Amino acid sequence: MTKIEALPPERRPSHVAIIMDGNGRWARKRLLPRSAGHAAGISAVRRVVAAAREIGLQYVTLYAFSTENWRRPKTEIAFLMGLLRQYFDSDLKQLKADNVRVRIIGGRDGLEKDIAGLVADAQDMTAANTGLHLSFAFNYGGREEIVAAARNLARQVRDGKLDADAIDCTMFASSLQTAGIPDPDLLIRTSGEHRLSNFLLWQSAYAEFVFIDTLWPDFSGEDLHKALAEYAGRDRRFGGVDSASDTPPRPLRAGAD
Predict the structure, then answer these.
(1) pTM for the whole thing?
(2) In a domain, 23, yes or no
(3) Which of 23, 69, 109, 235 is catalytic?
(4) Residue 159 counted as domain residue
(5) The total number of structural domains that make up the chain
(6) Residue 85 sits in which domain range?
(7) Has residue 251 been placed in a domain?
(8) 198 labelled catalytic
(9) Residues 37-73: pLDDT tens digits?
């Protein structure tokens, strides 16, 4: 298998987004409670962060908790919040030392005060880091993000601070929670499911998708390498013609293939 380090820079993704799916099924296969799957999933997060740093990826975004996940049993939600506390308590200092910049996208409504504080601390403590940009989508929903951005722009138009005709794709993107982060080049979903589940809907317009059967707790650095190698073999056209054309296409923020 071709290692990503051996590929030319133009075949390497800058931003990899991952839908971490399959914790419950992993636990069920082992006759364990769902909480055991979530706990095992934290180990996979650590493996992926280590592999991403070794490979030299610039941006990684992990889908940790969606706005729809609040519908789960209260005991499961409480356990997930506890895992978040444990992860930042145990890993934040190391992430800072490893030059990883942490960012959390998603709403703060509904989060307990100490969780909101952990989120703020994680971002503040690593804000000066210049290595891997690691984003967690926590209490996040793509539709909600788009609606919030539209509301923000609408208020500016209403207040006379913005001309509606000045709103374009670049301005809209700058109103999203991912402002300053490039759109994902590659989106990976584990566990064999083939859907976005309300994740980075705007940002994934031109992402390459790789769906793998591996359940998230079993996801390894080798799995990441395989997904990157598959990405490297894709011909990204961004609505233009193929790479054999005399005039290579220029990436667009939005449009139709």
Answers:
(1) 0.89
(2) yes
(3) 69
(4) no
(5) 1
(6) 14-139+184-232
(7) no
(8) no
(9) 999 999 999 999 999 999 999 999 999 999 999 999 9
21 is catalytic: yes
Helix pair angle (34-55, 74-97), 10° resolution:
20
pLDDT at 252 over 50: no
Candidate list 21, 91, 185, 223, residue with the active-site label: 21
Give 8's pLDDT tier (boundaries 50, 70, 90): confident
Residue 22, CA distances (Å) to 17, 35, 53, 158, 175 in order: 16, 12, 24, 44, 32
Residues 5-15: b if buried by 16+ CB within 10 A, e if exposed: eeeeeebbbeb
Residue 157 placed within a domain: no
- State the CATH number of the domain containing residue 63: 3.40.1180.10
**Contact present, 217 and 22 (Cβ < 8 Å):** yes
| Order of strands across the sheet that contains 133-140 | 101-105, 133-140, 59-66, 15-19, 186-189, 208-211
**pLDDT band, very low/low/confident/very high, at 25 (cuts 50, 70, 90):** very high
Token pair 């079993």 in the structure block, residue = 218
